[in-house]
Amino acid sequence: MTETEGVIKYRLDHQDQPIDKNISISEINAWRTLLFKLQLIGQIENRYEGYGFGNISQRINRPDSDDTQFIISGTQTGGIESLSRQHYSQVIMANPLKNHIRSIGEMPPSSEALTHASVYQQDKAKQTVIHVHCPEIWNNTQQLSLCFTSADIAYGTPEMAIEVQRLLQTEKLKAKKIFSMLGHKDGIIAFSDNMGKTACNIIKTFKKAVQLEQTALYS
Ligand SMILES: [Zn+2]
Q1: Which end of the chain is more exposed for a tag (fewer CB within 10 A), N or C?
Q2: Is the pTM of this model over 0.90?
Q3: Helices 195-218 and 26-37: crossing angle, nearest 10°?
């Protein structure tokens, strides 16, 4: 793996100011803390050169609006068990193909915000996106019959945005709502119309991966 975790690769216009006071973070933040406890989001000394990993986002624009606006955990917040409002960033414009994001917040958005944006831009039914790092799921991508982006496409690039948009057209991903990024070590993305459903999909897939590994080990 030659890429460095956590480096922002897109063009970012960021305004340093608090996110909209009407945005509630209680739902997104509770799920994020749970995923932290499962070490699917976190910062662990001997993984990814000690960089934080995993991020979570929620669409915030009104159903009648065509914008892609969402809140997302800030860059390098992986190591913090429980985030507060200052740790979220509000993406107010995203153009994955032009590699460009505009945001406001007391910290810049996650380095993987562009990949979240390409999922949201597919259709309005997608309300939440979660990116975790899970070696068990990632290593069993084939056995779990998961969709995946190719090993030569790195995270946070326009190539990834194009690949994600292609993958999202497939019936398999429409059904599974979770995929591996083989060009991003241990990288998994899940999405759906609901935060709880997205998180539970990851946790259930994690369980299946653990079960596969245990079966291989003990049978
Ligand atoms: Zn990642």
Answers
A1: C
A2: yes
A3: 10
CATH code, domain carrying 208:
3.40.225.10
Number of domains in the chain: 1
- Is 1 a domain residue? no
pLDDT number for residue 1: 39
**Whole-number Cα distances in Å, 90 to 59, 94, 101:** 10, 11, 10
| CA of residue 57 to ligand 1 center, whole Å | 13
Residue 88 alpha carbon to ligand 1 centre in Å: 17
Token couple for 217: 């080990």
Distance 16 CA to ligand 1 centre (A): 24
Note whether residue 161 is domain-resident. Answer: yes
Which range (4-8, 115-119, 130-134, 184-188) has the least confidence?
4-8
CA 6 to ligand 1 centroid distance, Å = 7
Cα 41 to ligand 1 centre (Å): 9
Question: Domain for residue 138, yes or no?
Answer: yes
CA–centroid distance for 144 within its chain: 20
User: Residue 166 sits in which domain range?
Assistant: 11-218
* Distance in Å, CA 35 to ligand 1 centroid: 14
Q: How far is the CA of 216 from the centre of ligand 1 (A)?
A: 27
Within-domain flag for 169: yes
Which residue is it, tokens 């990814």? 48
